[in-house]
Amino acid sequence: MSDSPTINPARRGDASTPQGVRASRRTRRAAYGNIRETRPGRFQARYTGPDKKRRPVGTFDTYDAAAAALAKVLADVHRGTYREPETGEIALGEYAPRWLAIRELKDTTRSRYDDLLRRWILTPLDVPGTARQIDLSTYPLRSISHGVVSEWYAALKVATAKSAEEWLARGPGPSEAQHVRAWARQNGRPVKESGRMPTALWEAWRAADSPPAAEAPEKSAAVTGRTQAARAYALLRTICGDAVRDRLLDANPCTIRRAAKTSPAERVIPAGSVVDMIAAACRGSSERYRAAVIVSAWSGLRASELFALRRQDVERTRSGGVRLRVRQALVDVTGKPLAFGPPKSDVGKRPVHLPPDARS
């Protein structure tokens, strides 16, 4: 059975005006649509969609052209692939925040996605080789094509690389948090070695004209911006994938090969003597971190998991080793106090065994 609408065959006559269509205007019905002559030599195709709304397909120079366009729309209706013309008109700048708001995400993931959207996806970026910018937030979803994504991705790589260069160009220096800690210690204010600092302490440091720290750790020259670009692209691909499932897009336009791939630096496992040397350096106020150094070296736990361990999570085994029960992690979200939450994934809740040597 054909998906095309039922149209009576035309008799001989003018190729542009089928037989049976008189000079006076008249309407022919075809399945769920119809074709009418609006004026001599002009034919309008209309149809009724699944939502019972009447819509025009368009106006054409010949009856056959109008019938072909109508047949295509009705075939989509019969196949279940039809979508209303209005869908896809929503701009990415409206859809993406809505997508983020209703999606079930952990606080840390939501914060990271919000930062990627704000910095790289829903902001104008300079297109390399031109004097113009591309702003994906203004694009209706259905107008985001592979070409648009490719142009944005080219601009994204340049923007993230430039951001990394500017960060490195500021020279080897401590972060603002390190500045605040140094200033607090110099002024006799109580401050922890690590972790989130009180808002009042930050405000006091800024009120003192943000004095710099005396010493500065080296910045990593490995920062290139490629990871930020890959993460932003992966997020856009995920959002467009959900737009396809919402039938706002026919296909995902994010098809650039390896654009979401990251190449993390190789992790170097320190030798036992190095671990012992670092642990031995933890004296005085840093003594409490000695156990953290040893456990970190032998377990491979994430920092958020390591510093969320409690006494009840540590057990001795019959073989003389130690078993850790990872049940929670520290959650650090910008603008919120440090809190405990579940591990990064469901499989993150796990036992971790340490050898007897780790007890030293």
Automatic annotation (TrEMBL):
Region described as Disordered: 1-58, 341-360
Gene Ontology molecular function: any one: acyltransferase activity
Record-given protein name: Lsr2 protein
InterPro entries xref list: DNA_brk_join_enz, E3-bd_dom_sf, Integrase-like_cat_sf, Integrase_recombinase_N, Lsr2_DNA-bd, Phage_L5_Integrase_N
GO terms under biological process: DNA integration; DNA recombination
Domain Lsr2 DNA-binding: 175-208
Keywords per UniProt: DNA recombination, DNA-binding
Organism superkingdom: Bacteria
Pfam families given in the database record: Integrase_N_phage, Lsr2_DNA-bd
Residues annotated as domain Phage L5-like integrase N-terminal: 32-78
